[in-house]
């Protein structure tokens, strides 16, 4: 920037500087959390919808000024604990402001890019759930400790094994859009992770880094602790891969059980039973239209040097 282009007017300079100072906002995403904050006298809102409209207007205004704003979730219970830990009065605006900064520093955040809050909030809740799952799974995985025989870090070894299992699984599934769910009964509540992958023309599947990290951590926890669990895939095949007589899009469901720190393929009947049985009552439920229940694909089991 040349000296001639520098801002000399104080107000212009302040506006330019404002664009270089990021902002943070913590949002009360649902009615229950909003109601919890209404008990504070200094909380200035009475209606959740109006609150969200006002917040969206502010976010849009900041975006129009070129200000980058990160949005996090405001958790009333966590806020109450935060104030108690720091001996802050929770019924003060500056306490809420300090908590907002802390939530942006340590919690799940998304950058506001001008979209309606109705679009942003589900993604933010999903990101917060993903981070909570990763924190929980990481803590569980850390319990694995070290191998008594060789001293290796079992968590590290299990994560490498989980990564290999995922790579082999996606290669075996081939082209299509894959929705994977992994559940592991290694803690209370059980660990659960979801991963979306898309593969076309034999190319390497496209994966979201954050989803992949959480998914592999959950799977690794099951491997390291040899905990019961399962993995299911739901695949929508590309149009070119469908038969000419197909009456519409079809999906294929497959399943695997965790055993001996690897994935054991389930038979078609086991997959059908798992999907077509009510988890609470045990009663059979009708199969979904357009869904094929297929056996899990066999995956090459690598050596397990820590299975003594």
TrEMBL record:
<feature type="region of interest" description="Disordered">
    <location>
        <begin position="233"/>
        <end position="253"/>
    </location>
</feature>
<protein>
    <submittedName>
        <fullName>Uncharacterized protein</fullName>
    </submittedName>
</protein>
<feature type="region of interest" description="Disordered">
    <location>
        <begin position="279"/>
        <end position="308"/>
    </location>
</feature>
<feature type="compositionally biased region" description="Low complexity">
    <location>
        <begin position="234"/>
        <end position="245"/>
    </location>
</feature>
């Amino acid at each position: 920037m040349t000296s001639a282009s520098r801002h000399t007017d104080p107000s212009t300079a302040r506006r330019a500087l404002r664009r270089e100072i990021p902002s943070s906002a913590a949002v009360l995403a649902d009615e229950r959390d909003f109601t919890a904050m209404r008990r504070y006298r200094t909380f200035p809102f009475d209606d959740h919808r109006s609150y969200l409209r006002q917040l969206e207007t502010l976010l849009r205004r900041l975006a129009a000024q070129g200000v980058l704003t990160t949005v996090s979730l405001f958790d009333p219970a966590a806020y109450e604990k935060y104030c108690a830990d720091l001996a802050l009065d929770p019924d003060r605006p500056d306490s809420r402001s300090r908590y907002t900064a802390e939530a942006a520093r340590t919690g799940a955040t998304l950058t506001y890019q001008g979209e309606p809050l109705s679009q942003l909030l589900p993604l933010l809740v999903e990101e917060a759930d993903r981070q909570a799952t990763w924190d929980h799974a990481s803590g569980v995985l850390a319990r694995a400790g070290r191998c008594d025989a060789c001293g290796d870090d079992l968590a590290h070894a299990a994560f490498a094994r989980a990564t290999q299992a995922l790579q082999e699984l996606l290669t075996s599934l081939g082209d299509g859009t894959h929705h994977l769910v992994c559940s592991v009964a290694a803690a209370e509540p059980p660990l659960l992770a979801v991963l979306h992958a898309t593969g076309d023309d034999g190319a390497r599947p496209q994966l979201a880094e954050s989803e992949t990290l959480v998914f592999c951590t959950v799977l690794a926890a099951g491997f390291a602790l040899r905990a019961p669990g399962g993995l299911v895939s739901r695949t929508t095949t590309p149009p070119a891969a469908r038969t000419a007589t197909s009456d519409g899009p079809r999906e294929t469901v497959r399943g695997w059980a965790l055993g001996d720190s690897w994935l054991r393929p389930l038979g078609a009947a086991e997959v059908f039973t798992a999907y077509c049985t009510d988890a609470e009552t045990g009663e059979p439920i009708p199969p979904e239209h357009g869904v094929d229940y297929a056996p899990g694909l066999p995956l090459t089991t690598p050596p397990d040097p820590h299975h003594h």
